[in-house]
Structures
1.
Amino acid sequence: MGLGFLLQQPFAQHALLAAALVAVSCGLIGPFVVTRGMAFAVHGTAELAFTGAAAGLLVANNPVVGALIGSVVVAGLIALFGARQSERDSAIGVILAFGMGIGVLLLGFYHGFATAATNILFGNIFGVSGDQLIVLLVIGVIVVAVMGIWYRPLLFASVDPDAAGARGVPVRGLGLLFLVVLALTVTGAAQVVGTLLVLSLAITPAAAAQRLSASPLIVAGLSIVFAVVAADGGLLASFQSNVKASVFITSVSFAIYVVARLTGPLLRDRRRSRHQGHFPRQEATALRPTAELPGTPVAAASSEDGGGLGDPAIRPRASGR
Amino acid sequence: MNGSGGSAIALRGATVRFGDHVIWEKLDLDVAPGRCLAILGPNGAGKSTLLKVLLGLLPLSAGTITIDGRPPGHGSAEAGYVAQQRVFDPDLPIRGRDLVQFGVDGQRLGLPRTRARQVDPVIEAVGAQSYADVPIGLLSGGQQQRLRIAQALAGGPRLLLCDEPLLSLDPAAQEEIVAVIDRHRREHGTTVVYVTHEITPIADVVDQVLYVAAGRWAAGSPDTVLTTQSLSALYGTHIDVIRVHGHIVIVGGDGAGACTHADDAGPAGQVRDRHDGHAGHSPEGQQH
C-alpha cells in the first residue's frame, strides 16, 4: 500500500486530523505545564481518564463523554485538595490511586469489548470516528479560546504569582481554570496516544521549546510546532509499518527533545555573549558604588557597571553583616 | 477625616479583623507624598495585611483609607509592588523585559507582547538594560530585584510598595537595591513603603516608621519609635533597642516571642492596645 493511497482513506485522514487537533492543544498548554511544574497533574488526569472512560462505558457505553466529565471532576478535586503548591503532588497521588482503584472496579462490571478499555490506556488513533473527531474539535476550540483570552494574566500568575496578585490578577481562579483546560486537553489526547503516553505531547515539546528560547511567544509557537510534528510525523511513519502509532509519536517527540537539549546550550551561550559578555550571578562583586553626582540624569546612571548607587551622601551604610 | 488632605497615604481608624480576630485596629497614619515609610513588626503582626489594604485587595473592617485622596482601586496601577526575591528556574521562558512588561499590562486579557517603548525607560532607570533580554532565571538576585523594581515602576505608580524586597540578598545587593529605589523616590517624588523585618539596610532612607505587634501599633519617626521605651510599651514586656555602628538591634525580653529576629525596628510614637482598658501608654506619643 502506498502512502498516497492511505492518505485518501477516511480512517487515515481522521487520524491525522485528530492527532493535529490534540497536538495543538497540548503544545499550547505545554509551556504552562512546565512553568507551573504540573507534569504530575498531566499524568494524574490522563490516567484518571481511564476511570472516567470506564464509568462512561458502563453507564452510557460512551467512554469519551465519561472521560471528559471525569476529567473536570478530577480537576476540581486536585484544586480542592491541592490548593497549596507544596501539597498538590501528594493530593494528585492520593486522588490518582483511589481513582484507578475505582476504574478497575468499574471495568469489572463491564462485559463489553475489553479492547474498548485498553484503547484508553494506549490510544487507538486509527479508530477515531467522526463523532470523536467533533468532540476533539470542540475541545480544541475551547482550549485555544480560553488560552487566547487569558494567556497574559495566566503567564503573569504562573511566573510571578505574588506580583500578579498585587495587580489584581485572580491567581487562584486562573489556577483552577488552567486545571480544567489541562484536564480537557489531556483527556482528548488520551483518545489518540493513550493515557500512558499523553506526556509525550503535553510536556516533551514544551520542554524542548524552552531549551531554545526565552521569549514566551516563541516558546509557545515552537511547542505547538513540535507537538504537531511529533503527532502527525509519528502517525505518517506508522502508516509505513506495523508498529503502533504511539511508539513513533513518543519517539519523534523524544528525538526533538534530545536535539533541543544538545543545541539549547549553544544558543544560550550565543545569547549571553551578545549581551556584552555579561556574567550573571557575579554582579554583586562587580558592583562598586560609583560616585554619581546628585541630579545626574537617570539614563546616565545606568552605566555598564550595573548602575551607580546614587548620591553617596544618601547611600546606606555598608552593613558588615 | 481630620486633615488627610495632601497625604499620599491616609488611614483613619483603620481596622482589619477576620471574624473575631483583630489584626490591628484604629490605625491612624499619614504619609506625605515623596516620603519613605517602613512598616515593621514580627511575623503575623499584620504587615502583609496592611499591604493588601494599601493595594486595594482587602477592604477595611472599619475606618477609612485614601491613597492620594482617593480609596485605592483593586490592584490599581497607582501602586507599584515589589515582592521579595525568589528563585526563578533557570529554564523559565521569561526575559527581564517580559517581567517588566507585566507591570504595564500583565493583568489584562489577551496574548502577551513586549513593547520597547513602554519598558525601556524603566529598565534604564534601574540600570538593567544590559541584561534585560537574558532569561530571568540566569540573573543574580540583585539583578532580578532591579527588574522587579522596573516592573513596579512600569505602570508609573505614585506609590511604591516593597514587600521584603531585600530578603535573601547579600548586603552589597541590598545596598544597591535600596539606592535604586531611593533615587527614584527623590527624582520622581514617589512615595515609598517598605514592609520589612530588618530596619538596618533601610535606616538611612526611612522618614517614618509604623511598628505593628500583637494587635498594637506605634507610629512616628525612627528615632522616636525605635527606642527601648516605646517598644517595651508596645510589646508589653521589656525590649532592648541597641544601636551599634548603624545597626539597629532589637532584643526581646523573656518569653515575649516578640523579637525572634535580632534586627528589627520598634516604634515609639503612639502605642495603642487592641483591647480596651489595656491601652499601652505611649512614652512620647505624638498624636496626628
Note: The mean pLDDT of chain B is 81.
2.
Amino acid sequence: MLEALYRILALTRKELLAILKDPRSRYSLLIPPVLQCLIYGYVATYDLNDIPYAVLDQDRSAASQQLLARFDGSAVFRRIANLNRAADVKSVINEQRVLLVIQIDQDFERRLLSGRQADVQVIADGRNSNTAGTAIGYIGGIVDSFNTTWRREHGQRSMPVRLTSRAWYNPNLETRWHMIPALIGTLTFIQTLMLTGLSVAREREQGTFDQLLVTPFRPVEIMAGKAIPAMLVGIVQATLVLLVAQLWFQIPFAGSFITLYAGLTVFLLAAVGMGLLLSSVATTMQQAMLYSFLLIMPFALLSGLTTPVSSMPMLLQYVTLINPLRYAIDIAHRVYLEGVGLTLLIPELWPLAIIAVITLSAASWMFRHRLA
Amino acid sequence: MTEHSAFSARMHRALSLIRKETRQIIRDPSSIAIGIVLPVLLILLFGYGLSLDVTDVPVAIVLEDTSPAATDLAASFQLSHYFDAQPMTSMPRAEALMLSRKVDGIIRIRPDFGRRINLGGAEVQVLVHGVDANHARIIQGYAQGAVSQWMARRAAQGYAMPTGPIVVQSRMWFNEANESRYFLVPGLIVLIMTLIGALLTALVMAREWERGTLEALFVTPVRTNEILLGKTIPYFALGVIGFVLCLVAAKFLFHVPFRGSVAVLTAASVVYLLVALGIGLLISSAFRSQFVASQITVLVTFLPAVMLSGFLFDLRSMPAMVRLMTYVFPARYYVALLQTIFLAGDIWAVILPNIAVLSGMAALLWTFTYRAARKSLA
C-alpha cells in the first residue's frame, strides 16, 4: 500500500515536471486563465455603457428640450444626430450609426401642458434584441424620473404606485459579480479536462505509454498519477481566478475559503474523471483536444454561465443534471456571493460526488481493460 | 516542358494532396466530430435550448394588504405569463423560498397599498435574487411592466389612475417578436467557422510540423503554394459544409428571418473562412507544437469569437479600451455582417466596409503564411 503511494507520488512528480519544465507550457497554464478572467470581467456584461442615438424632435419645444437634456446628461446616451425628416430614421438605424431613435411628435408640449398623455416613440435596432431591450429599459427609467419631476413641478398628484427595488447579494446588479465567480469553475474545468486528456494522449501518441505499462506501475496507479497533477493545476488556477476577483475586481467574498475549496475538490474529482475517461477514448493528441472541445462547449452552454438554467426547456434542464460544471458554478456563486456553509451545499455536492465516482470507476476500468 | 503540361502536373500534385488530406479527415473521427457533430449540436442547443428571453419567472407575491386594489394587482401578476407567481401573506416565508432559490424574486404589496393608491405613492417592493444580474434586471423590468399595465387597465375601467404624463412607445426593428434566437443562431455561424477554419487547421498543421512530415513534403517536387492549397482546401470544404448546415437550420428549423441575399452572405463567409484558415496556418507554422498551437488558437480566435465579437455580449457594453481591442479580431466584422444580412438585409453601408476589412486581413495572413512556409524550406 505504502509502496503504491510512493509510486503514485513519483509519477505525480514526473508529470508535474513534464508540465512545468517547458516554459511555453508553463505560461500557457498560468497566463490564459488570468487573461481570460480580466477580459471576461470587462466584457461579459449585458449592461450598456454607450448608447449612440438620434433625435427626431418635431416639436422643438421647451418641454421636449427638457426631456432630451436628461438623455444627454446621462452617462450612457450619446446623441449622434438630430434628424429633420422621418425618412432619415431608416438610414441611421440600418447603417448602425445609432442604436435607437427617439421621436417626439409635434403636439408633445401642448399635450403635456393641457394635462393629457404624450407619447415618445422609440425605434430600436433589434439586430441584437437583448441589447435593444436593455436600452429601451434605460429609456423607461429616464422617462419615469422626468415624469415624477414634471408632476411635482406642475402641481399634479404623485404617481399612484411607486415601485421600489432591491437586489439580494448583488446590490448594484453587476453582471461581473455573476461572471467572475462562475469562471472559478469554468476555467478550471476547461484546463483540467484538457490537461488530463492531453497528458495521456501525448504518451500514447509518442509511445511512452507502453513503456509506462511495462514498469511496476499498476494501471490504476498510472491513472492516479495523471489525475493528481491535473487537480493540483486546477486548484492553482482556481486560486488565480479567486485572486483576480478579489484583488482586481474587488468583488466581496461572503463565504468561507475552506467551504469553497472543499466544494472545488469534489468538482475537480468529477472533472478529472471525465478527462481520464476521454483520454482512454482518444489515441492522439488531436483527438484528445477535439473531443474535450466537443464536451466543453455543451457543458459550458448548459451550465448557467451565459443563460440561466431555469429558462431552458425542461428536457435540457434534465440534461444539466449530469453536468458537473453546473454544480461547480452553483457552488462558486453560493459560497462567494451568498456565503452559505457546507451543509447548504449538500444538494450540489452529492450529484458531483456521484459523477466523480461513476467517471473515475469507468476510467479505471478502461485503463485496466482497454489501455493495459 | 510545355506550359500546359507544367500546369497539369501542378494540378495533379495539388489534387493528390487534397485527396490524401480528405481521406485523413474522413478516417479520423475527431475531425468529423468537430466538423459535423459539434455544429449540429450547437445548432440544436442554440436553437432550442438557450435563450436570453425569460418567461414564467418563479416569484413569491406577498400580500400584506387586503384591499380590492391590492388583490387585483396580485391577480394580474398571477395571470401574467412572465411570472409564475405564488401568493402568500407572510414575508418570512417568501424570504425562506428565496434563500433556497425556489423563487427568483419577491413582489411585496405593502399594508397601506389600498389607501395610498388614491393619495399617490402606494408602495410595491420588488426584491430580486441578484446573483444572476441580467436575470434579476429582466425580472425588475417585468415587474415594472406588469404594474404599468395594471394601472393602464384600471384607468380604462374608470378608476382615477393618472399615468404618465409621458408614455414610451417602443418598437424594435428587425426583430419585432424580441426573440434572442434570431441573433443567436446567425451568430453561431461565426463560432462554427472559427472552430473548423482556425482550430482544426492549426492542430492538423502543427501535428505535421511536430512529426516532421511537412519538412518531408517540402523536399518533394511539390511547391509551397500547392502544399498550402492541398492542406487547406479540404478544411475549407468542411467549413462550407458547416456553413450550409447552419444556414439551412436557421431558415427551415428555426425560421430566423433572412432579409439579405444568399450570394452576399456566402461571399462574406468565404472571406471569413479564408481569414480563419490563414490564422490557423500561421499559428501552426509559428509554434509547431499541437498543445501550444491549440492553446494559442483558442485564445486568439475562439474566445474572441465568443466574447469580443458582439455575438453574445454587445460591443457597446464594453469599456472603450476593450472595444478598441475588438477591431483586431476578425470575428467582430463577420458578426456585424451576419446580423445585418440575416435580420436587416443587404445594407451596403454596413456590408462593404466589413467585407473590405476581412479581405484585407485574409490577404495579409495568406502572404505571411506563404512567406513563413517558404522560409522554413530555405
Note: The mean pLDDT of chain B is 82.
